[in-house]
């Protein structure tokens, strides 16, 4: 069986990845979009995760969106990776082109390099760690692996336990293992093309601020209120930027103006973290990159340029 034709689109949040994916899908017959976003998987979290509209999803098939309930906290990178690999196998059979839009770079890393192979789970050790509580877990992780403690939220019990388990069983921090994982060079499979966006950080920050304002105008506060009323936000989904800040407001712990500003600030911080990943992805041989933030019109022009250089 021939490998699937894949266009991998990367970029920080609010840089125009979705516009570029739509331009690509409209230009290539039989192309469909595959989301690599760890929050778009959740049903009901629509506005704050910038999901494509229902009209756009009716025009262009989108995959790996709305595949989990937000009250569950067990959706893992492995779950997404298995679903993505199954999709790509079906695309290869049908001759379709997959346009993978990388919102969560950890998902992209796993797709390109496989999962970090840590030690198997130790049920007894996990039970002892579970009994400690999240604050004690996070404090312990700060002592043995400060880098992992910075990345893992103190309420993310599952990941805290796994990081401590890896350290206990191997004698080495999880972050050290993952550095070796990240060090593996990225070589795209046959039939893949990488297109990336790495715009100026100041321009990107402006689009982030504007997007947050637009989300509020579109009803993000009501969306969060509805999810909370249903008890639908589990620990993992509740940490999504925007949802956590507005939850604090709805619980009387934050003024609305402050919650909105916090959302802007944390989204800008997320974009900075994503840029660190993207500078490494930029080393992918023969990848094509733009240093602009793309709106719909610019996305069409840029993809036409790519088409002119590549046989897609």
Walk me through this protein's architecture.
Helix 6 (134-144) packs across helix 8 (157-170). The chain has helices at residues 17-27, 54-59, 77-94, 105-113, 123-130, 134-144, 146-151, 157-170, 174-183, 201-217, 220-229, 243-250, 256-281, 296-309; strands at 5-10, 31-36, 62-63, 97-102, 192-197, 288-290. Helices cover 54% and strands 9% of the residues. The model has no long low-confidence stretch (mean pLDDT 90). The relative contact order is 0.18. The chain contains 14 helices and 6 strands. It is globular. The protein has a 6-stranded parallel β-sheet with strand order 3-2-4-1-5-6, sandwiched between helices. Strand 2 (31-36), helix 2 (54-59) and strand 3 form a beta-alpha-beta unit. The protein folds into 2 domains: 5-116 and 190-309, Rossmann fold, CATH 3.40.50; 123-181, Histone, subunit A (Orthogonal Bundle), CATH 1.10.20.140. The chain starts with a strand and ends with a helix. The chain has 312 residues and is α/β, with parallel strands linked by helices.
Span between N and C termini? 19 Å
Q: Give the domain tally.
A: 2
**Structural class estimated from helices and strands:** alpha/beta
**pLDDT < 50 runs, ≥5 residues:** none
Q: Which topology of the largest domain does CATH recognise?
A: Rossmann fold
The average pLDDT value, as a whole number, equals 90
Radius of gyration: 20 Å
- Order of strands, main sheet, comes to 3-2-4-1-5-6
Overall morphology: globular
Label the CATH architecture of the largest domain: 3-Layer(aba) Sandwich
CATH evolutionary superfamily of the largest domain: P-loop containing nucleotide triphosphate hydrolases
């Amino acid at each position: 069986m021939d490998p699937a034709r894949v266009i991998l689109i990367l970029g920080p949040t609010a840089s125009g990845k979705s516009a570029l994916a739509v331009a690509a899908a409209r230009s290539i017959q039989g192309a469909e979009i595959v989301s690599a976003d760890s929050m778009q998987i959740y049903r009901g979290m629509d506005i704050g995760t910038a999901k494509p509209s229902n009209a756009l999803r009716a025009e262009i098939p989108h995959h790996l969106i709305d595949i989990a309930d937000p009250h569950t906290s067990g959706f893992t990178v492995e779950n997404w990776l298995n679903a993505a690999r199954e999709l790509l196998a079906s695309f290869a059979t049908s001759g379709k082109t997959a346009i993978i839009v990388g919102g969560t770079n950890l998902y992209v890393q796993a797709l390109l390099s496989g999962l970090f192979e840590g030690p198997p789970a130790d049920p007894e050790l996990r039970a002892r760690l579970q009994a400690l509580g999240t604050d004690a877990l996070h404090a312990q992780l700060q002592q043995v692996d400060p880098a992992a403690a910075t990345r893992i939220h103190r309420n993310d019990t599952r990941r805290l336990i796994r990081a401590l388990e890896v350290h206990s069983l191997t004698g080495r921090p999880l972050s050290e293992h993952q550095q070796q994982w990240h060090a593996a060079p990225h070589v795209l499979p046959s039939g893949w093309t990488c297109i990336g966006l790495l715009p100026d950080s100041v321009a990107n920050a402006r689009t982030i601020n504007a997007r947050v304002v637009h989300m509020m105008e579109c009803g993000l506060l009501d969306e969060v209120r509805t999810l909370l009323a249903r008890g639908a936000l589990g620990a993992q989904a509740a940490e999504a930027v925007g949802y956590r800040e507005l939850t604090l407001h709805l619980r009387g712990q934050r003024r609305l103006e402050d919650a909105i500003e916090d959302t802007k600030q944390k989204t800008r911080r997320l974009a900075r973290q994503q840029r660190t990943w993207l500078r490494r992805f930029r080393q992918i041989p023969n990848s094509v990159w733009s240093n602009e933030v793309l709106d719909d019109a610019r996305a069409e022009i840029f993809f036409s340029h790519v088409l002119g250089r590549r046989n897609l």
